[in-house]
Amino acid sequence: MIDRIQTPLFDLRRLRSIDRDEYVRIHTLSREHFEPWMPARTPGLSFERLFERELEHAEAGWGAGTEARMVAVLPDGRLAGIFTLSQIARGPFQNAYAGWRVAVDQIRRGIATLGVTALLDLAFAPQPLGLGLHRVQANIIPTN
Asked: What span, in angstroms and rounded, lies between the C-alpha atoms of 140 and 144?
C-alpha cells in the first residue's frame, strides 16, 4: 500500500517517529481548538506521551491493516494536520471510518479538503496500491 500522497499544498504520509516534535507543537498550539472535539486526555498525560501512544497504535494498525494514520506535512516540514482511516473492516463490508484534525494555524487554507480527498483516494484505490474499500464513513460532529 502506498504510504505517501502528494497534494498541491502538502504531502500526506504515514505518521512516523520523526513527527514527535511537530505533533507536540500542533497539539500544544491547537489545544483549545481541538479540546471540544477530541476525547479527554488522561490527567497528567503529556502530548509527548500521547504521541508515543498514538504512534504505537498507528504502527500496529498499519501492520494489521486496520488503520491508516497519516500526517499532512507542509513543504517547510511543519505538520498541518492528522488524517485517519480507522476500524478498517474487511470481508463483504470493506469499510473504514475517516477522522481528521487540522492545526489551528492552518485552518481555512483548504488543508481539510485536500487531506480528506487524498485519504479517500487511498481508501478507494484498488489493492495493492490502496485499501480497496467499498465505503468510508466520516466521523463528523455536527457542531464542529
From this structure: 8
